[in-house]
Amino acid sequence: MEVRNCDENEYSIEVEDVYKHYRIYKDKGSQLKEKLLFWSRNKYTENNVLKGISLKVKKGEAVGFVGHNGCGKSTLLKLLSRISYPDKGIITTRGRISGLIELGAGFHPDMTGRENIYTNASIYGLCKKEIDRRLDRIIEFSGLGEFIDAPVRTYSSGMYMRLGFSVAINVDADILLIDEILAVGDGEFQAKCLNALKEIKSRGTTIVIVSHSLNQIEEICERSYWIQNGEICMEGEPREVHKAYLEATVH
Amino acid sequence: MQKTDSRNEALSVRKTGQKESFLQTVREIYSYRQMIVAFVRRELRGRYKGSFLGFLWTFLNPLLQLCVYSIVFSTILKSGIEKYYLFLFVALIPWIFFSSSVLGGAASIIAQKDMVKKIYFPREVLPISTVTTNFVNMLLCFIVVFAVVILSGIKLNFLALLCLIPVWIVEYILALGMAFLTSAVTVYFRDMEHILGIVMMAWQYLTPVLYSYDIIPPQYRLIFDLNPMTPIISAYRDILYESKVPDLKSLISATVMGLVVLVIGWITFSKLKRRFAEEL
């Protein structure tokens, strides 16, 4: 892969010894009555989801996280996007982060596709000027044509996803986080997404994918992390990691 | 690749696991200003969408309220205050802004919980949007207020009218501080929404909205003076009903109290926001 005038030592993402636990309430009462009457029930067990994860992702690199449900890969993605915070350890990210996690966030059904582009893109932190500049590109990529001026409630779910994806991918983030998003839509749309991701990657965007679809990771990523019980179990070339992962799963 | 967007370098390098500074947060909220604009617009336009009269309701609503009050208080409950409908109206519109900001603010994060759980954005945007929406709504209502004031024959004092701007700002600060506080606490403690309903009702009666400050017995005045809404409501009434420049001393005390509430709200919010996504 061509390395574009960026410092070899520059990492987009650095994760240093990160720990994260969640509280699992046995019987959670968030009402006053329950808190007062059953305060003993508010005891929770701690579920250690991440136990000392360290990793570095270079600028322009694409990596995948694989592992069983509950292994902590989605939690790691949430920490990277700052939706939640680590208990211990430091995560350093460089550049604008965007996530293909919830497509079409903030869409208002009564507003047109065009108006919703502004709302949706603003949630990714773009200002009006930045959205103006991307508007044509977003509309073109979505392939919605004249439907762009129709209210979103008239859209089919496929059109809805296409518009959401089109906005998310045109944010021009430096780091793109993807959680199982490629599992939606028809084959044609998936192929389009995959091509778009490859194109974005060739422009130097760092990509992190969490997926059960090992093929997709192999197609895009240079490196894969196999996460098990909150720890990195194996790291390396996707095909090799996935082979080991699948073998371990079968036995 | 050349980035065409001018991005603050300090903003783009982020370290989680360390505390973010006040300035960083403010700068980040500023970079999300379009989100606030979009949310305010969506809320204002969405509110009456689908209704026959649409946006006209923004003006009709206060006007109809005024009709009810003037009928009740001029025929049944005679208050003895001259032009009581006006006396009440100029205080009620600002009170509704405050009250709906606190109540709406409390629900603002829970209402967007799917977004909070899945997307990163500065969480402060949500209460700010709610308060700003209500604020813009109040400013629109003021068109009706001005019309009613002029029609009722009150001669407005230009200097006094200028004082409206600082009064608006002080009330916005206070409402925002309360919204930060209530929105964050409600995430952890859902009863807050219901408790607030009754608290805001009591607060309204502990503020001279329906009556004048002068009728408060002297021994209780201290409670009213500690209520930041008292000087704010009195200032509105001074400007629009008495058409005189409001008392500077009480305005300053309202400003100080508003800022104190904002600081408390901000600090509480900053502490609690880190676990929003997990608690929702």
CA radius of gyration of chain A is: 20 Å
What level of helicity do the residues of chain A show?
25-40%
Mean pLDDT of chain A: 82
Considering residues with a beta carbon less than 8 A from a beta carbon on another chain, report the largest interface and each chain's count: A-B, 51 and 42 residues
Structural class of chain B: mainly alpha
- The fraction of residues assigned to DSSP E strands of chain A is 25-35%
Between the first and last Cα atoms of chain B, what is the distance in angstroms? 39 Å
Broad shape of chain B: globular
Largest beta-sheet characterization of chain A: 6 strands, mixed
Provide a count of the helices of chain A: 8
Q: What is the H/E string of chain B?
A: HEHHHHHHHHHHHHH
Structural notes for this entry:
The complex is a heterodimer of chains A (251) and B (280). Chain A has eight helices and nine strands. Chain A has helices at 32-37, 73-80, 113-123, 128-142, 157-169, 187-202, 214-220, 238-250; strands spanning 11-25, 44-58, 62-66, 88-94, 97-100, 175-179, 206-210, 223-228, 231-236. In chain A, helix 6 (187-202) links the parallel strand 6 (175-179) and strand 7 (206-210). Chain B contains 14 helices and one strand. The longest helix of chain B has 28 residues, at 84-111. Chain B starts with 8 loop residues before the first helix and ends with a helix. Mean pLDDT of chain B is 87; it is low at 1-11. The interface between A and B is large, with 51 and 42 residues.
Short description:
Chain A has 251 residues and is of the alpha/beta class.
